[in-house]
Amino acid sequence: MSESSLRGKLAILVGGGPAPGINGVISAVTIEAINQGWEVYGIRNGFQYLVQGNIDQVKKLTIPDVIPYMLRGGSMLGTSRTNPAKREEDMQRVLECFRRLEITALVTIGGDDTAFSASQVCKRVGHSIRVAHVPKTIDNDLPLPGSTPTFGFETARHLGVYTARALHEDAKTTGRWYLIVSMGRAAGHLALGIGKASASTLTIIPEEFRGRQVSLQAVCDLIIGSIIKRRTLGKNYGVAVLAEGLIEAIGEEGLVQALGHEELSRYGHLERDPHGHLRLGEIEFGRMVKDHISRKLDQLGLKVTLIDKDLGYELRSADPIPFDAEYTRDLGFGAVKFLLSKESLQYGAIISFIGGRMVPQPFEQMLNPATGRMLPRKVDVDSETYECARRYMIRLERSDFDSPDQLMRMADTVRMTPDEFRSRFGYLVGA
Prior knowledge:
This protein is of the alpha/beta class and 431 residues long.
């Protein structure tokens, strides 16, 4: 096959939630592809219109079209969570749209759900459409090689840290506690990154439970324990960062057991998106934790002002910081380079970079065939980076219960005997 025959019409679409740098990928793909002789088409709102057989929302892109957006947040092509692989008739309409448009190459931008959709397109079209997927999520939970981040994560962490630092100063000034719920469905990378870099009082992520069942009671007791320990240090304020993935770790059954159906309904509805995920944004987890802790603190005789703050939506469409602006240009360029390679005629791939070199990862190696999703990259709670994060948190530790003096101080804070305090909170640290 001649090199010129690898050109044709290239389509770009975005799926899933926003992440800083999407427009950087779109612009880099468009510029490089046009310079290489392709016609480039942007598809509005992911697969949303294609599953209807509608190509009215497909627009030819030029370099002047994309340049104004290259350093801006959001997505100039919009996005959606429409799952074209859910029903075969939807997928067939998508493929027919591509045939009508004479598309010969496809770049998808999204998380593991969009990667799966792209892999299904690739699987069904043979070599007639070459497919490259650019992974994105502010959660940083996709299993890219080594410690390679997903684009958008560094910008989200950067801005989240400034918010957490400002709230810490407000907490210190006003003598209150802030409960920050950070995005991160499957892993605690963003919560831990924000908590660690902002020197927050403590961060709680699902991974620290090491596969044990997580309960709302345990999450709240970890924060209460930190509040009590801070009191023994003369501090009546603090900031706790919680990964929203704790909701899924607790699970529907656990939430119902802890609160009951009627009370749980006060905090939102347990709904699922087209890919089967709980819509975590529909549940006011921060308010739920705040109310639960407030009741427990009243029982302990502690007066504490608690403020809950969700942190996520304001991070997703922010302008990318220089790291992500550079990184997304690399990814877009790499996607086009892969699509021009002979390897793209053999397999579709997820684009990644290792040590400055583009390394395409075949869909078959990255996606679990049983679930159609990538195995999430979890926080390694046995690593030194996590050990460091824990060392600088203020939370109950086994040593607090092994020290009679410290145990007495904590027990006195809530008018308990040491044995009562150990009975109430010792389970958190195996004491």
